[in-house]
């Protein structure tokens, strides 16, 4: 449950934002571990006085948040062994003009592919099949060079999914994602109760209804409609995975930053993993995606460590309050601080105790310690290369982070006792440059 003081403050913030920024309707939710703990709405579904009020069950178009669903379908193919993310597009969709780009580059917006289709503006017009889109595919930047957001890239990925599944993108979304996760209020076309997509006149209190179409080949870039409740579940899935959809390890790989917005004089605040947007406010890793389509703006963010999240849905083409997300997170930090997990002893760690303690890389001391989950950390005493390790087989560990990510740590025993560690050609010993450890480079001789 949310503290009783959070919801009234959220109500006030949402009501003030909706009025001051003249948003037809605004619905916000604070989530935790996939559940809505507080929600607030202001305005009506069509922006008219006396019409149906917006609420937690009101559907809004979520725009590019749809891309995270497309990415999940692609990663399911990867986990099934159908493709690898480093595969060239030509291996799965032969005959295009961009066959050299990789699946990973398309997912991370680093393929250099054009951002949009040929005119007319696809977001306000009826869609067409991929056969008509295919001749429009071209790179505007070298592949792999830099971040260049591409709606078209996700249409290409949807076609890869369709070719392998033998069915449409929307059918794969329904059967592989929505049904297993119970997302009954997430659909390709709007279902009542839903908001109307609206544009607000910049200089008068007048509204214009935006068109709504099925975008067919471009649907994977921004077609879906959803609610704050369904997006709470989806956000937790992006954080933790689901045994019937994607493993947590796959979601962790999807969250690794690959495409950065690197502008002179600026530090990066957001990046793209494999179809997921990653932000790093004050060193706190958040994941999700933003969304915009004519008549709608949306945003989903989840804190990876705490499981807290924020969903914002509006039915306006432009005019989202620039500080709204920050203001909501401030309320979350104030009213839902992360709970301090108690510490408990773990007798199962006794069998690994002989690995722990100080080890030396040459003369430099490192400390090998057990984590609460039974994995290892190798930390320098002072400056150096810190890494985590997961168990792989008896006395073999694989790096999970830092310099040694993916590298193999072998525990070498003598008479059953750990004698030294072999790690990526480096030898760690119990004493500095241990002369009995067969160190690279020959005999070390005595210290003098």
UniProtKB/TrEMBL annotation:
Instruction: Tell me one Pfam family matched here.
Output: Beta-lactamase
The identity of this protein, by name, is Class A beta-lactamase-related serine hydrolase
**Taxonomic classification:** Bacteria, Bacillati, Actinomycetota, Actinomycetes, Propionibacteriales
Keywords in alphabetical order, please.
Hydrolase
SUPFAM superfamilies, per the entry: beta-lactamase/transpeptidase-like (SSF56601)
> What stretches pass through the bilayer?
none
> PANTHER family per the record?
D-ALANYL-D-ALANINE CARBOXYPEPTIDASE (PTHR46825:SF7), D-ALANYL-D-ALANINE-CARBOXYPEPTIDASE/ENDOPEPTIDASE AMPH (PTHR46825)
Domain DUF7586 positions: 349-430
